[in-house]
Amino acid sequence: MKPHCTDCASCAIRHFEDAADYRKRFIVQEQIDRYLPGGAHFIDEAAIAAALGNAPANDTARVRDILAKSRAIETLLPEETAALIQVTDPDLLGEMADTALAIKKAVYDNRIVMFAPLYMSNLCVNRCAYCGFRAGNAEQKRRLLSMDEVRQEIDVLAGAIGHKRLIAVYGEHPDTSTDYIAETIRTVYAHQVKSPRGAIVGIRRVNVNAAPLPIEDLRVLKQVGIGTYQVFQETYHRETYARLHPADTVKGNYDWRVTAFHRALEAGVDDIGMGALYGLYDWRFELMATVCHARDLERQFNIGPHTISMPRLEPASGTDVPTTSPYLIDDATFQRIALITRLSVPYTGIIVTCRESPASRDTCVGYGITQMDASSNIAIKGYSDFASEQHQEKDRQQFVLSDTRTLEQMIAALAQRDIITSFCTAGYRCGRTGGCIMDALKTGKEGKFCKINAVLTLREWLDDFASPATQALCEPVISRELAEIETNLPKFYPTVREHYDRICNGERDLFF
Ligand code: SAM
Ligand code: SF4
User: Fold this and answer.
1) 195, 229, 403, 500: which could form a disulfide with 199 (CB 3.0–4.6 Å)?
2) Which residue, among 117, 122, 118, has the nearest Cα to 4 in the 3D structure?
3) Residue 55 near residue 87, CB atoms below 8 Å
4) 409: exposed, middle or buried (C-beta count within 10 Å: 0-12, 13-18, 19+)?
5) Other CB atoms closer than 10 Å to residue 31's CB: what's the count?
């Protein structure tokens, strides 16, 4: 591996020159074309514009028909999503919100899964106009984590805070490509630490947010146990995409990016997470295109996105795009996107991160989102340098976080709303991924595992990390969930109870 540089300006220039070869290796035209047979593209801008233009506003009967389809856990057609986008009537919006929450309960039960981001590197050969990590941004201090540093971050994340699942984030750079990603994943899984009360704990699932990769590289990540492979399209609108991502960069190739999941599914990485970066272009178009993307994966592979994220533009160092874009959205629009996403792709998990304010995230919980992060630090080496402080340093992080609540505060806040926090990582370890998880989600079978694993993993966290006050807040939630399992899942209950009691007696990592 080349030595990495500490001087940000020269790093960006030196590695950008190296990037010409990198770009040649990374964009394999044949691995784009095979997913766009006959040149037909699943993101059809004219069709999306027509669907939006033709959708009637506030057609109650039609909207109710569409909601019935969502309740049946069927992905909506673009024109159906368009009809939901056009709703402004408060009563109809209320029906949509009730339906969204009911769907979330049916598919994922009453739980929110917690995770944390871990930024591995901010070296990047691309020049995305809105991102603090872009090459040439002299305000950014460049670094990548060594494996020792990865372990130090895990000491805090798993050992002090109690996280069990991560989203590992990487800039796109020859020094931090597939080999580095694989090495960091292996390092995280191998590192077991002690909680303050002496339990052996570790990270059980590493999801990855990284650049699109060729099929061969994705197979390597599959082998080392990647969880969800997350790639955000940023904007599905070609003209906007071209303006924000220079054509001479790897990321400048729209089709290489938009076919990233097709390659992943072909490589056996069958747990994928998509998202548009809201604020770059018209949110209605982005939401429609996200649904078209999901539908094409379902059509070609019978597998849709396990998660849809809703990143939104945040202020970042060295760029005014996040503050001057004409497409920035307000909180109410953001929440509406969460709601319509839940209804449009009813089986998917929805992630809302600490980019959003506490109030807005709390509202989204009521619209059926499924995953949140907490105690997050997105500075490179931020967890070990600042321990549990909610400290932010603009020159070594990508953007600035809005919700700085700790994991413990989040768990307590959710418990006060009778929502159980889950640290479940069972799905992929039991082989419930890809087509198997799709079926389980659509038929409501996965929800019962969600419920059981939420109880077992929250029990672990309470015993290993919680203050007495948080324990007291969560005990009634756990008791209620156990009682519901006894009533609604009587066949499972004896084994659940046995696992639960073993966890209370100090055993760890028991799951369904
Ligand atoms: N480098 C890889 C890539 O671009 O796909 C992955 C890592 S990149 C750090 C992760 C995501 O951060 C990007 O896909 C983009 O959506 C998001 N992002 C970049 N700049 C942002 C900003 N100013 N505000 C919010 N999100 C941003
Ligand atoms: Fe690099 Fe990703 Fe940031 Fe673009 S969004 S500059 S590819 S880290």
Assistant:
1) 195
2) 122
3) no
4) middle
5) 19
Hey, what amino acid is at 219?
R
For ligand 2, residues with CB inside 6 Å are: 124, 126, 128, 131, 133-134, 171-172, 251
DSSP letters, 446-480, are: HHHHHHHHHHHHHHHHHHHH--HHHHHHHHHHHHH
Return the HEC string of 327-385.
CCCCHHHHHHHHHHHHHHCCCCEEECCCCCCHHHHHHHHCCCCCEEECCCCCECCHHHH
Residue 221 Cα to ligand 2 midpoint, Å, equals 20
So what's the pLDDT on residue 12?
42
Cα–ligand 1 centroid distance for 129 (angstroms): 11
Dist CA 317 CA 400 (whole Å): 9
> How sure is the predictor about 390, in pLDDT bands with cuts at 50, 70 and 90?
low
Task: Report how far ligand 2's centroid is from the alpha carbon of 376 (Å).
Answer: 19
pTM > 0.85:
yes
Whether 5 has a pLDDT exceeding 50, the answer reads no
CA–centroid distance, residue 368 to ligand 2 (Å): 29
pLDDT for res 486: 95
Mean pLDDT of 355-373: 95
- pLDDT given for residue 397 in this prediction: 62
| Mean pLDDT computed over 315-344 | 96
Enter the DSSP assignment of 434. H
Who contacts 372 (Cβ-Cβ below 8 Å, separation ≥6)?
112, 113, 114, 115, 351, 352, 353, 354, 361, 365, 410
Q: Ligand 1 pocket: which of 134, 259, 277, 307 to mutate (most atoms <8 Å of CB)? A: 277
* Residue range 349-359: mean pLDDT, rounded: 95
Per-residue pLDDT, averaged over 261-289, amounts to: 97
* Pocket of ligand 1 from Cβ distances under 6 Å: 130-131, 133, 169-172, 209-211, 231-232, 234, 277, 311, 313-314, 316, 322, 355, 398-399
Q: Which pLDDT does position 438 carry in this prediction?
A: 76
Nearest ligand for residue 355 CA:
1
Please, are residues 348 and 307 in contact by the beta-carbon 8 Å criterion?
yes
Helix (H, G, I), strand (E, B) or coil at 112: strand
Rounded to the nearest angstrom, the distance between the alpha carbon of 124 and the centre of ligand 2 is: 6
Which protein residue has the closest C-alpha to ligand 1 atom 5? 211
**Mutual orientation of helices 45-54 and 78-85 as an angle, nearest 10°?**
50
Average pLDDT, rounded, for the chain: 92
Kindly indicate the confidence band of residue 190, based on its pLDDT and cuts at 50, 70 and 90.
very high
In angstroms, the CA 477 to CA 472 distance is: 10
Mean pLDDT of 165-193: 96
Residue of the nearest CA to atom 2 in ligand 2? Answer: 171
Q: Calculate what percentage of the chain has a pLDDT beyond 90.
A: 82
Summarised one tens digit per residue, pLDDT across range 72-87 is 999 999 999 999 999 9
Residue located nearest, by CA, to atom 26 of ligand 1: 313
Which atom of ligand 2 sits closest to the CA of residue 170? 8
